[in-house]
Amino acid sequence: MSTPNGNGQSPATTSRQNLEGQNVENPFSLLGTAVPPAANATKRDVTITTGIVLARLEKEQVHYLKEDELNFEIRLRSGKPRGSIPIRKRQLKLLLDRVRAGLIKIRDRSSEVDPCEFRLVEAAVEEFDEEVRGFTGRQSTFLFRQLKVRIQHWLNRVSYWKASSHIIYEKQRMTMLKFATLLQRLELHAREWEEGEENGGEAEEDREETAAAQNVGESEELFSRSPVIPAGNLLDLESPVGTLSGHGRASRPSISFAPRPRSSSLLPPNPSRSEQTLQTAAYPSYQSINRSSERPRVQHLKTHHWNLKFSGAGDSLTARSFLERLALKARVYDVSWNDMLQNISELLDGVAFSWYLSRSEEFGEWRDFEVAFLEAFENGGGRAQLLQEIANTRQQKDETVTSYMSRLRLLLLRSPERLSGEVQVELAIQGALDKYRDLLSVSQLRNLNEVETRLKQMESVRVNRYEPEDTPVSEPKWSEKKGNQGTKDFKPNYKRKTPYYQQPSSFQSTYYPHYQAQQSFAQPFAYSQPPPPVVAQPAPPFSTQPQLSQPSVNQQPQSFFPPTVRPPEVAPVNDRAQRRHCWGCGRPGFTVRTCGCQSGNANGRS
């Protein structure tokens, strides 16, 4: 994989023999003398050249990857990312199953490096360095597993770079070394944390005392545990694009970070103490850079739990009220104003958010933002308007003493000038209700606390009285009075009662529901007067009654009625026919046309 020299041996082999002659087995020396592989080198060739063992991605590790990392892993397995992040995670798990089943193969050839990839890798190195430096916890925590999986992903990702030039190869090799070192530091932090918990914190205290004795920070103390790598073998953390184009920095102190690896780490074991002394004497030492002083770490606040937003609209909070609530949140959650300035965009909305975006570069500290914020969103008038508002503060008729005094105290706190206690007492008495003002003017009050106490006493006396003074006694209406029958609004309560002789109809429970409503309206008129009493008629005398005898053969049977009495014609049994009658002769069951009388139209009525 490497070009042979004049002796027929590759530079890597020659360098390894020289190191063996010196009894030095430092892996960093091997990395410094290696040459870039061929243009068509595979991932395995790059791994052998750098001496770093790569790990395989498992299904249970997919959960820890982020969006860009998921996209790379999917494309690496000949897939196309689609859908949201949960969908892509399921897609990657299916691809891992297919790779394990042998249906698809992972791309093993190196690919051309995009300039954007350099910037992504550089940002990832800085991000992981901050996370690892501030990590505290065991190896079983979620953050440890997430950091380990993500760092391993970027280590595998850099191994696919195509080393088309010696500069790119050096950048690839050193970047892989940085990610491998971050893994070692992460495991070292977790192991020391576990040992500190087991030993009652003794390991942590010893480490802090050692760092204080050396007058270095925590990160420098971790970096100084391994031999210093030569400056020619390490690249700075500047963007590789500037290095490739020749615009990078000419000289910069190298960064020494390589803690003691564990037996399960990705790098070979650390050299012995004698070998470290040999290498330190062979190469000059460079001063390490304390990264904690380069950029202050910003605390990410959970502002969505604060329930506080400012939009700059007329119906929202005022600018002063927003800043006062913000100061209260900063005191409760122990937040510095620098962190508050970095997270203020999460609390702005609408016009206020647009204003902040247009001027965000002007705010170097919190004081600059506060002054510009008040100038932009505070109502005009300034000091004069605020003093006028304090003087015009009045207690409302239905407002409690606590609410009134709270409003007055807030306005006094916003005042640019500190008012004396006598002026504050006079303003509080002037703004109180009229029924309290006369009593307060007689009392000798020295501060607002005494004014509020006195007002609460008078308020409790008014509230606890049997008949409040300000509550008018409501007079009863004329319609509510009982017994005033002479007034025009008197309305007696009439309630219609069902007559005693009315029997409930069985037809109300039938299919026709409207029959009950019709009956309810018809009953009062039908039974407004009781029906006439039924008088029994006396029986006729016996002599006038027909004599029943046994008829002879030639004799017709006698009728029940006398011969002179004609039985009435029975009308057909029909409810509608029974209501009919001839209006000419009054014959029931017949009409004028069907009746045989002489006064009907059928017989030529005149």
Automatic annotation (TrEMBL):
Record's compositionally biased regions (Basic and acidic residues): 477-492
Extent of Acidic residues compositional bias: 194-208
Superkingdom of origin organism: Eukaryota
Segments for region (Disordered): 1-20, 194-222, 243-282, 466-499, 525-575
InterPro entries, alphabetized: Retrotrans_gag_dom
Residue span, Retrotransposon gag domain: 345-431
Identification of the protein by name: Retrotransposon gag domain-containing protein
Organism: Cacopsylla melanoneura
